[in-house]
């Protein structure tokens, strides 16, 4: 495989769990298993469904807006604004919430790919073979 270029306006998957406008740009559907890049727009007051990436860390770079990063596992809410990076360790139940008057635009995603979540929503078939270079042992 060689390098490729993808555009945020031509995603191969949209995921309403994350937002009304969550675009998966680089993910296992494009053969990227260990680095993912999503483009997400949260409208004012919009929030993701609280979720957990059991085996993946999530890094979210805030391009525009302000809001709260909520860690439900540890009962912590942290404010963020454009230029911040929200890092979520594996196994933490979390959500991103846009401020009531602020649209939030971000890029980022779980690394490695959250295969269990993608299987759960049907984006990856349950019986799909994982490539040898996928770096997480899902049997544990």
Automatic annotation (TrEMBL):
<dbReference type="InterPro" id="IPR014710">
    <property type="entry name" value="RmlC-like_jellyroll"/>
</dbReference>
<dbReference type="Pfam" id="PF07883">
    <property type="entry name" value="Cupin_2"/>
</dbReference>
<dbReference type="InterPro" id="IPR011051">
    <property type="entry name" value="RmlC_Cupin_sf"/>
</dbReference>
<protein>
    <submittedName>
        <fullName>Cupin domain protein</fullName>
    </submittedName>
</protein>
<dbReference type="InterPro" id="IPR013096">
    <property type="entry name" value="Cupin_2"/>
</dbReference>
<feature type="domain" description="Cupin type-2">
    <location>
        <begin position="39"/>
        <end position="103"/>
    </location>
</feature>
């Amino acid at each position: 495989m060689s390098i490729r270029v993808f555009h945020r306006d031509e995603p191969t998957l949209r995921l309403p769990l994350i937002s009304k406008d969550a675009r998966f740009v680089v993910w296992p559907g494009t053969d990227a298993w260990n680095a993912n890049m999503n483009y997400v727009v949260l409208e004012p007051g919009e929030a993701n469904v609280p979720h957990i990436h059991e085996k993946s860390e999530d890094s979210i770079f805030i391009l525009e807006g302000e809001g709260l990063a909520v860690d439900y596992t540890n009962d912590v809410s942290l404010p963020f604004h454009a230029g911040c990076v929200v890092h979520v360790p594996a196994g933490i139940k979390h959500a991103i919430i846009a401020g009531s008057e602020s649209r939030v635009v971000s890029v980022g995603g779980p690394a490695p790919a959250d295969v269990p979540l993608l299987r759960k929503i049907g984006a990856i078939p349950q019986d799909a073979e994982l490539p040898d270079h996928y770096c997480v042992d899902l049997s544990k």
